[in-house]
Write a structure and sequence with these properties.
With 444 residues, this protein is of the alpha+beta class. Helices cover 29% and strands 24% of the residues.
Amino acid sequence: MHIVDNSEGFHDYTRVMYKYRIEGGHPIKGTVKASGNKNAALPCIAATLLTDQKVTLRNIPSIEDVDVMLQVLTRLGATVESDEEPGVYHITCHNIKSSEIPSDLSKKVRASILFAGPMVARTGRIQLPPPGGDVIGRRRLDTHFLALEALGARVDIDGIYKISTNKLVGVDLFLDEASVTATENAIMAAVLAEGRTLIENAASEPHVQDLCNMLNSMGAKISGIGSNILVIQGVSKLSGTDFSIGADFMEVGSFIGLAAVTRGELTIENAAPQHLKMVKLGFAKLGVHWETEGDTIHVPKGQSLKIVPDMGGMIPKIDDAPWPGFPPDLMSIIITVATQTEGTVLIHEKMFESRMFFVDKLIGMGAKIVLCDPHRAVISGPARLSGSELVSPDVRAGMAMVIAALAAEGQSEIQNIYQIERGYENLSVRLQALGANIQRIPNS
């Protein structure tokens, strides 16, 4: 076991800048194990602040966003110990010595907003600089602050966010949007609030469920998990726990798309297929299918990759929506898959107004895409893609570019891979093991 402080022990993604060099045209083949869910790991790390006892978290992915969140904890006074077993951390937040989230870390990751709920519940205050994260459109924070104010917090916004309270009290909340992170902040504040809290229009994604299950294992009283109505009976204290994060179904969906467009064959272990029902329906519209056995998914080679029209021969549509709809984080992936599919499909991204702007890179590679507006694109395929010079704008678009490069003819280089590796664990090494021709090299 190794005690990690804020000066060593974490990955350094900034000292040397790297890029991917990819030679396309090689079908992937083999077996890969899905990583832990990034979007569950981040709130669960923040939730360790709600107790002064040791919390053990397992199946934590080795990615930049996780490292930043752990660094924040150590700056606040927590002890973080890495286990000999990969992906296991022992976290004790016994002596919280600061209520200020460091600005140099906050700007690196949007999930820094998740410290608001537990810090206010535990210490009564927090100072939080504006969080960073992907630039995929306006990502409002209003719902977070409205929920905390309703529970009894005071919010002062003057360059940084200052939130304080003398006491949090349970209340009936109807969130003005089903925001995942706002729901998580409201939950973490409410578990230590006095009395009962009702949260309606709550997000219900698997990562929200993971957070709720972790908190219940610590002594919280949360019911309605998996629905959009949560009932929380506040408790005076939470204990430690030993909790394992679920699989990253976004990563699983990305690997499925990669196998399909490279005409490869892939087995994905620990794939949590129960969370892929709508993803399966969406991919089926593109002629992509897979088989499930227990917790394992097998993507066979020889996918038809042919658009399945709606009744009457109409052009089908794939659109995203809050859970259990098609996940917004897989829209970039399915757009790339659609470029290699015979037929025409409409992709409607309703959640973020800038997520689709990466398609100009796919068009530059030869994709047949008409960007109708910031939210809709019509894609016709299959298109013959050629290698290109690319820059990753965000996590999911970056992974979509990796998939496109591996399906293209010739060589591609992708810059700013820091953005990709924020969400995908040891990506180049894992893809190399599957036969992909990808190299992670320093920028010259």
